[in-house]
Amino acid sequence: MNSKRGTIEIEAEGELYRLRFTTNAMARYQDRAGETVTQAFRAIDAGGQSDDLDAIRLRRLFWAALSSEHDVSEDEAGDVMDALGIQIAAQRLGEAIRAAFPEANPGNARAPSKKAARPKPTAT
Predict the structure, then answer these.
(1) Three-state DSSP class for 120?
(2) What is the rounded average pLDDT of the residues 76-100?
(3) Which of 26, 42, 52, 93 is 20 to 30 A off residue 102, Cα-Cα?
(4) What angle (nearest 5°) sits at the alpha carbon of residue 8, between those of residues 4 and 9?
């Protein structure tokens, strides 16, 4: 992973692919799906609590992330997912989502500044 650029590299059937949620990728997803990527992320996260798999949403998100670096159709993105296996594809997609929104990851939170952590002196 090239976390500096938010890129997740994957290899499928001897080909190297890159997943990345750029602004343009997110806009392409929203234009095609009629929902924002954050709405899709929430829906997938909520679906993780059941046995339901929204294959269309998952493939479209994968396609959007691939489209930042590759000229592929949604069907071709599905073929890449099949080559990886759906579980691995979903894991790598999750990595791309976390790389795109690092501030939302608890492990990336900045420590509070020392200046803010000191109590203010009280007047006597």
Answers:
(1) coil
(2) 94
(3) 52
(4) 120
3-state secondary structure of 88: helix
Please tell me the total number of residues recorded for the chain in this structure. Answer: 124
Cβ–Cβ < 8 Å for 82, 47: no
Angle 2-61-6 from CA coordinates, rounded to 5°: 15
54-57 own/partner pairs: CB under 8 Å, 24+ apart: 57/33
Q: Whole-angstrom Cα distance, residue 41 to residue 83?
A: 23
pTM over 0.90: no
**Rounded Cα distance, 89 and 93, in Å:** 6
User: By 3-state DSSP, what share of the chain in percent is helix, strand and coil, each rounded to 5?
Assistant: 55, 10, 35
Contact, 44 vs 57, CB < 8 A? Answer: yes
